[in-house]
Amino acid sequence: MKTWQTCCCIAIASFGVGYIAANLNWAHSNAPAWVQAVGSIVAIFIAVWVPWHQHRLAIQNAEHIAANEMRALLGLLEIELLMNLEAIQKNAGPILEANQQNGAFLNEYPVPANPVEIFSALLPKIGAVQPAELRAQIVRASHACSGLAMNFSCNNRLAIAWNQLNVQARRTQNTEDVRAEADARQELESYGPSLRSQWLLTKEEIGKTLLQLNAALR
User: Fold this and answer.
1) Rounded distance, CA 154 to CA 162, Å?
2) Of 102, 83, 100, nearest to 149 (Cα)?
3) Alpha-carbon distance 123 to 106, whole Å?
4) Treating both helix axes as pointing N-terminal to C-terminal, what angle do 31-91 and 3-23 enclose, rounded to 10 degrees?
5) Who contacts 181 (Cβ-Cβ below 8 Å, separation ≥6)?
6) Distance in angstroms between the alpha carbons of the first and the last residue of the chain
7) pLDDT 10s digits, 163-212
């Protein structure tokens, strides 16, 4: 109950008691009974109103705590997305942006162990995120980050295998080693478009999410 509503209830109850007290014939034999009746009514009102009011305050406090927790989680998610974007930009951004021909990514790039750790913590409460558009955008961006990490991990395995075969083929000049190196290079080149496509998608989804998070948190 709001403060003004509480004050109104108290004022009405006080007025009623005061009115009865002022107009009651205290010399009458029924006066004690009237006093007892009014007292009982006031006692019932207090017995009902106080627990209800305390329960209402507890609900409001819980809602306030939940809202603050959600706001904190969204703030951390914003940081997580920024860190993912900056990490990829720093480690592989130049080659990703420059590789217009969708060729092979020949190096091994660092991959976060868990790029969506905050999102995973938020997931059980994702239904409480409002509006629904922000909720859906958070899911898309986090899934894109997770997918990009998987793409980089796969590309790293292919790059490591190719580099090892390349070194061996250069050293031995063996026909089988040269053929194996060529096959590994072809596999790596065929994976390049997938990696770059996922990067462009992830960058776009993170950008959209950061804009919506910024509007929601400010």
Assistant:
1) 12
2) 83
3) 35
4) 180
5) 162, 165, 166, 168, 169
6) 29
7) 999 999 999 999 999 999 999 999 999 998 889 889 989 999 999 999 99
- Interhelix angle 132-172/175-217, nearest 10 degrees: 160
Residue type, 209: T
pTM over 0.85: no
> pLDDT tens digits for 140-149?
999 999 999 9
pLDDT tens profile 115-128 = 899 899 888 888 88
Distances (CA, A) of 130 to 66, 67, 162, 210: 13, 11, 47, 15
Provide the 10 A C-beta neighbour count for residue 29.
7
Question: In degrees, to the nearest 5, what angle opens at C-alpha 212 toward C-alphas 111 and 109?
Answer: 10
Query: Which residues 6+ apart lie within 8 Å of 126 measured at CB?
Result: 135, 138, 139
Q: What HEC string does the chain produce?
A: CCHHHHHHHHHHHHHHHHHHHHHCCCCCCCHHHHHHHHHHHHHHHHHHHHHHHHHHHHHHHHHHHHHHHHHHHHHHHHHHHHHHHHHHHHHCHHHHHHCCCCCCCCCCCCCCCCCCHHHHHHHHHHHHCCCHHHHHHHHHHHHHHHHHHHHHHHHHHHHHHHHHHHHHHHHHCCHHHHHHHHHHHHHHHHHHHHHHHHHHHHHHHHHHHHHHHHHHHC
